[in-house]
């Protein structure tokens, strides 16, 4: 893949080095996210015209318009945007650390860990948003630490991380399914519905949870972005350039796992967004390294579009968005594996 050239832009006393193509792709993705977000607020069993949506956002207009826009559709759309962005950025970090396009939280076990933690919380403590969120976060981060400790040997090697993660994921999935078989019918149904991944009935409390978590973790990961790009050239080269490789690996792994756990806590384990978004962003930008911002925007666009399909495809029946991402993501995974095989990389 050919790298696009860097251009220097000076804003007063601050000089920035930007790749024009990366900037153009990010702006296009941001415009796509804004457009799909607007459509999400307009369509439904109670359609609202765009001027009325704008009025309702500021609290003016018909009372029913204000209720549907501000209390029903906007929290769901913002939750989809933030969860998609969090999964996209976390997936980019995992793929950068493993140096493998399959190294996403879905494949290497962190999503399974978060699911096990959340299901255990639902069955033992009876569910509830806060306990389930804490259970998912602790499960995801605990799995990240376990996989890292099992995979590390003078640094993390990509294929070792993926293989260890697949093994841990299989074990955790068996634990999750065993817990569900031993649960009461009502608790088992609650856990099963959560595990599909859905954005139905999301409220402002969900937006606040994922928003606060992202506000803390995203800036931290962005600061590690330059180090991650250097480490993709190899640990020895990165160390020669002054990068503390193991400290960067462990910090990025814990932060990306926490970001994944927060996203999963409010939506359930939505599959394939973390896998597909970084690779699609990388192909669009033609970047030669990690593209955290573009991956986050791509993740937001993918989940918003998938949620719109889930809402309207079989209306008035609402599909869980996890069903749509699984269908789309499974097709993408087959294409990715075929491309890797054709390129001699698998």
TrEMBL record:
<protein>
    <submittedName>
        <fullName>Iron chelate uptake ABC transporter family permease subunit</fullName>
    </submittedName>
</protein>
<keyword id="KW-0812">Transmembrane</keyword>
<dbReference type="Pfam" id="PF01032">
    <property type="entry name" value="FecCD"/>
</dbReference>
<comment type="similarity">
    <text>Belongs to the binding-protein-dependent transport system permease family. FecCD subfamily.</text>
</comment>
<keyword id="KW-1133">Transmembrane helix</keyword>
<keyword id="KW-1003">Cell membrane</keyword>
<dbReference type="GO" id="GO:0022857">
    <property type="term" value="F:transmembrane transporter activity"/>
</dbReference>
<dbReference type="GO" id="GO:0005886">
    <property type="term" value="C:plasma membrane"/>
</dbReference>
<keyword id="KW-0472">Membrane</keyword>
<dbReference type="GO" id="GO:0033214">
    <property type="term" value="P:siderophore-iron import into cell"/>
</dbReference>
<dbReference type="InterPro" id="IPR037294">
    <property type="entry name" value="ABC_BtuC-like"/>
</dbReference>
<dbReference type="InterPro" id="IPR000522">
    <property type="entry name" value="ABC_transptr_permease_BtuC"/>
</dbReference>
<keyword id="KW-0813">Transport</keyword>
């Amino acid at each position: 893949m050919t790298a696009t050239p860097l251009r220097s832009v000076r804003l007063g006393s601050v000089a920035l080095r930007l790749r024009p193509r990366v900037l153009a792709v990010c702006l296009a993705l941001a415009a796509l996210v804004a457009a799909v977000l607007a459509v999400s607020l307009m369509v439904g069993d109670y359609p609202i015209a765009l001027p009325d949506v704008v009025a309702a956002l500021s609290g003016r207009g018909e009372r029913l318009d204000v209720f549907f826009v501000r209390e029903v559709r906007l929290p769901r759309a913002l939750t989809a945007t933030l969860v998609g962005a969090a999964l996209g950025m976390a997936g980019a970090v995992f793929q950068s650390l493993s140096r493998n396009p399959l190294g996403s939280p879905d494949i290497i076990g962190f999503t399974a860990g978060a699911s096990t933690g959340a299901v255990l919380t639902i069955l033992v403590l009876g569910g509830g948003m806060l306990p389930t969120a804490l259970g998912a976060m602790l499960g995801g981060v605990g799995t990240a630490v376990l996989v890292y400790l099992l995979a590390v040997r003078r640094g993390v090697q990509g294929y070792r991380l993926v293989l260890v993660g697949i093994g841990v994921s299989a074990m955790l999935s068996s634990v999750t399914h065993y817990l569900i078989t031993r649960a009461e019918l009502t608790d088992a149904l609650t856990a099963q519905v959560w595990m599909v991944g859905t954005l139905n009935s999301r409220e402002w409390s969900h937006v606040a949870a994922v928003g606060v978590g992202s506000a803390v973790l995203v800036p931290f990961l962005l600061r590690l972005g330059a180090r991650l790009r250097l480490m993709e050239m190899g640990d020895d080269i990165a160390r020669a350039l002054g990068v503390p490789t193991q400290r960067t690996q462990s910090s990025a792994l814990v932060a990306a796992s926490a970001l994944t756990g927060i996203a999963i806590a409010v939506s359930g384990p939505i599959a394939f967004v973390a896998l597909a978004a970084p690779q699609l962003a990388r192909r669009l930008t033609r970047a030669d390294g990690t593209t955290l911002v573009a991956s986050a925007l791509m993740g937001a666009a993918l989940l918003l579009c998938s949620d719109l399909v889930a809402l309207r495809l079989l209306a008035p029946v609402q599909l869980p968005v996890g069903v749509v991402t699984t269908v789309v993501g499974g097709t993408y995974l087959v294409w990715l594996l075929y491309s890797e095989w054709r390129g001699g990389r698998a």
